[in-house]
Amino acid sequence: MRKTVNSPLAAAILLALPALAMTTYANAACEPDFSGVTVTVGSQNGPFIASALRAAGDAWEKQTCGNVKIVEFPFGELYPKFMTGMQTGSSEIDVLSYIPAWLPDFNSFLSEMPVSMQSGDYWNDLHPVYRERLMVWDGKVKSATMDGDMHMLNYRADLFDDPEEKAAFKKKYGYPLAAPITWDQYYDIAEFFHRPDEGLYGTAEAYKRGGQQFWYFFSHAASYTNDPKNPGSMFFNPETMDAQINNAGWLKALQDYKRGLQFNPPGALNHGSGDVRPLYAGGKVAMNIDWADSGVLGANPKESSIVGNVRTAMLPGSAKIWNARTSTWETYDKPVASPFLAFGGWQLAVPESAANKAAAWDFVKTVTSKEQSSKAIVTANTGVNPYRLSHYENIDNWLAIFSKPEAESYLAAQRASLDAPNVALDLRLPGFFSYTEILEIELSRALAGEISEQEALDNIAKQWNELTDDFGRENQLKAYRASMGLK
Fold this sequence. Notes:
This protein has helices at 8-28, 50-64, 75-88, 103-106, 120-124, 128-134, 157-160, 163-173, 183-193, 213-225, 248-259, 273-281, 293-298, 357-367, 370-376, 389-393, 404-419, 432-447, 453-471, 473-483; strands at 38-44, 67-73, 95-98, 136-137, 140-141, 144-145, 152-156, 287-290, 310-313, 318-323, 328-336, 340-341, 347-349, 424-425. The protein is an alpha/beta fold. The protein has a 5-stranded mixed beta sheet, sandwiched between helices. The protein has a 3-stranded antiparallel beta sheet with strand order 8-7-9. The longest helix is centred in the N-terminal third of the chain and has 21 residues, at 8-28.
């Protein structure tokens, strides 16, 4: 006997079953399941970094059924918005994208990376410099690197490999033309290729105040002040927190940095980092100093006239390094490479105030995963540079944007910089921008010839010491030693 459904309630239940089954299936496909959860991510205005966060966000949404909201601000507004929001508890941001220099200020407001992320292939594939130094504060992992940054030297193979240029250079300077190992060689090469009448200039660097000038100066200084015999003594005395910026090593660095102006294109005092990249890609200069962005731009046929000729090397070093403890120059048998990790790359962190820390950290893990990061590093305008060991080893991934010689040079220079025994870490200190603002004011006066190099450095040292006292010398010393990896 066939039974029929006469009850309206029973009929409604039967009609709802297919929808219920679909919902159950959809939830089963969400792994982990963050249905109904929105992760709000704070970023600088795109496309750089923000576009990489958006692309990873799309993948995370499909995987977890959660939602990602990217909130963008001008770079200059990031620090005050993040800090004020965390201090007052008014922030709705669950994931911060920020620079390593702010970690000392943000540290007490940030949650620790889940232990589950601190092991296995995800963890071990991160380069140790990022994993063990820049992501850590007070012995705790407070952030995840999503972008690897350092200054490098970029040069043109069409000029450096030209037989006539090589012969002429060796005849004039007495040694072969190649990527410079020392700063003296760098200036020889800049002088040799400086041909304004032909529309060619020796090199390009950033000298503009507010144009990331101080990082370029630091890249010169690392070679003369990052003393391997006295770790942590580059910026301050690691015992007293007295500023070291007016010693002989820093003076040599400033004299070098200023010397480069004569081999830069006209208007160099007004050039920021964004200006040195098209100068290199446009074939206007033989070399430049920049982050990895110059290499990617130089290989882009839509924006470059030197496609196929992009070459990259570590920053030059020095066989003489100032020993701040003994106030003497230490002389080494061969030049010591002290590549400078300028900026250090963007990082992601989750505040303690985040509404759903589990979802926020899971999103961070997706952004910084091998799969997503390997796409970001070869996608135009993401601003994401290598930071995982697999990024440097998988050369085939780079052939979409580089020729093989370009890719080999580009990756080898970055890996060698990170692996260098005397690699120099950027300054990380509470009040970072207060220190660098003082530096840029006096530095700009010296570059313009208003005051001498030594006078500028003495002024900076005096004001840095006063600033340190204002912040609290003991607290600043503790933070400085932590940033330099000292106990």
